[in-house]
Amino acid sequence: QVQLVESGGGLVQAGGSLRLACAASGRTFSRYTMAWFRQALGKEREFVAAIRWSGGSTYYADSVKGRFTISRDNAKNTVYLQMNSLKSEDTAVYYCAAVAYYTFEASEYDYWGQGTQVTVSS
Prior knowledge:
Layout: E1 3-7, E2 10-13, E3 18-25, E4 33-39, E5 46-51, E6 58-60, E7 68-73, E8 78-83, E9 92-99, E10 111-112, E11 116-121
Parallel strand pairs: 2-11
Antiparallel strand pairs: 1-3, 3-8, 4-5, 4-9, 5-6, 7-8, 9-10, 9-11
C-alpha cells in the first residue's frame, strides 16, 4: 500500500510558475512509476506527466510539453511537478498517482493522492 499527499497548489497569474510536490509513504517508493493527472471542473481527468522509478524516462502530454517538468527524489520519497508559463486552461485539481509498471492510463494507476487545486487567473 502507498499513501500519497500533494502540496504546492494555489492561485497564480497567467505566465507564472508553481511547483507541486507529492510525498509518498506506506511502502517502497523507488520502484513505482509516478504520474500527475489533472481534472478541470466539469471535465474528464487527463494525463499530465509520468516518470519511471529510475528517473531516466519521462513522458508529457502535448498540452504541457516544454512548460512542465516532472522529477523525483527517491531518497525523500517525493515526486515534483514544476509548472512554468501557466495558462488559464491549466486550472484544475492536480492529482499524484503511483503504479508498479509504466503506463499513462489513469484507470491503471493503483494509488492516488487527494488532489491540490491550481488556479491560473487571466
